[in-house]
Amino acid sequence: MFTKRLLVSILCAHLALTPTTGAWAAQDLATESLNLNLPSMGAVAGTELSPAEEQALGEEMMRQIRGDPSYLNDSETLEYLNRLGYKLVSVSDTHTYNFFFYPLIDHSLNAFAIPGGFIAVHTGLIVAAQSESELAGVIAHEVGHVSQRHIARMIDAQKGNAALTLGSFLLALLAARAGSGQAATALAVGGQAAMIQNQLSYSRSAEREADRVGLTSLTRAGFDPKGMENFFMRLQQNNRYYEAAAPAYLLTHPLTVERISDMENRTRQLGARTHKDSLDFVLIQQRMRVLQETKRDGWLKVINEMKQDLADAKDNRRKTALTYGLSVVSRKLNLKEDAIRYANQAVSLGGNNAILLKNQSEVLFLFGNNSDKNRALQMAKRLVANNPLSEMAVKLYASELYDLKRYEETLKFMRSQQAMTQSNPSYHAINARCYRALKQMSRHYMAVGDMYMAQGDKRAAEYQYNLAQQANDGDYYTMSQVDGKLRSVRADIIAEEKLKDR
Question: pTM score, two decimals?
Answer without folding.
Answer: 0.85
